[in-house]
């Protein structure tokens, strides 16, 4: 009986233990059952957050499965200007510009093969309206139900790309400007020395011609030498114009008048098979320009156009008022926003290769055959436009013709009547004493002979220091000083200051082949009586001397 009770108690304990375990399992099951809806709710919330991040992302997102778009967010729709239902099923390559489509296709294949690629790519894309934009694309490949897929984040970087392109363009213009400035400095120095050599040739030829009669056998030879020297002088003037070391005689000008004057010259020089057409704006604004230099530029551009149309064609010269805004000036070095006159010279000739176009304004660069061009014409025009604070461009394609555009800033000044050229007539000399100052011995000898031939007494000095010493020792006897502006040691400007300090009423003529940043004007304003251009022209030289000596 006792044993039976012990067994019953054991069974009761075991049953109680099993019941407790069962209850624990029930609790766990109930707990699990209670947690089931919470887990589902969490999953739903997670899915909602993911969908919200996808839809509200400020960058465009596109999912591509098996080469077709299956999902896009609103930002991508806004970026390309198409609703999601129109984009679905398309190939993403349709959204890329044709120029970049092949490259994009290669990158997509590499991406799906899980090959190593840069983090992002830049593409030119197309909106639904046909406009272009630049996009930066970041992609990640994955597998979707056994199919190759990828997801891309697309960001509009058009403004950034434009800013980078503008910066690159300005850097190119700056390097080109610096190169042209360096070449101009070199060209100006060469032209200055060459001018001194031409001065001797031209001057001695003029001296010999003065003593010859019309029937003299040597007269023709001497005149040929003089013409050659004058031709060389014209080349140096082109070099000096390119390097902006020639003083411009600017005045308020209506360019339509200059164009009409040029056309009357072109009609006599351009072959008749080339049609000249003018398209001149009414009420054209005034520019502050040297009409002679502008006319020279037009003539050179017209000659280039003629050479590009050997079988005939059309030459169009156009003027118009334009306003250049900050965006335009930001990408064109040296320009400031404001009103400009645009002078265009276009032809429908053979056009220019890109390789040549990059060097077209450089001196001595020419695509013409040997003996048919010096390569200075366009370089000279470049210098003229720069000296007018303007800008020149050239657009051309082989077989499509060429157009040059000259932008010249407007001025509020009113136009004035053109100056009439005086008759050179009689060569007048004198008996005054002149001190001739120049560092070139040949120039001193030539100048002395020229002036002595016309009655003047001439003293010479090879530098500024010697000139000052002679003037101090005999200033009462010296009636005029002809002073070279560019000399080693004491330059002409410093020497002028010393002369004026000694005698405030001293009469001085400045002589030079070129100037630096308006030095001639500044020197004349500092106390000089006038300017003689080198190489000396006998008529101009004698006229300027008398003009200063006869001035009260």
UniProtKB/TrEMBL annotation:
Its EC number is 2.7.13.3. InterPro entries: CheY-like_superfamily (IPR011006), HATPase_C_sf (IPR036890), HATPase_dom (IPR003594), His_kinase_dom (IPR005467), HisK_dim/P_dom (IPR003661), HisK_dim/P_sf (IPR036097), PAC (IPR001610), PAS (IPR000014). Residues 5-32 form a coiled coil. The modification 4-aspartylphosphate is found at residue 484. Residues 119-169 form the PAC domain. Keywords: Coiled coil, Phosphoprotein. Residues 66-115 form the PAS domain. It comes from the Bacteria. Residues 189-412 form the Histidine kinase domain. It catalyses: ATP + protein L-histidine = ADP + protein N-phospho-L-histidine. GO terms for molecular function: phosphorelay sensor kinase activity. Gene3D superfamilies: 1.10.287.130, 3.40.50.2300, Histidine kinase-like ATPase, C-terminal domain, PAS domain. The keyword Coiled coil applies. This is histidine kinase. It comes from Candidatus Desulfatibia vada. The lineage of its organism: Bacteria, Pseudomonadati, Thermodesulfobacteriota, Desulfobacteria, Desulfobacterales.
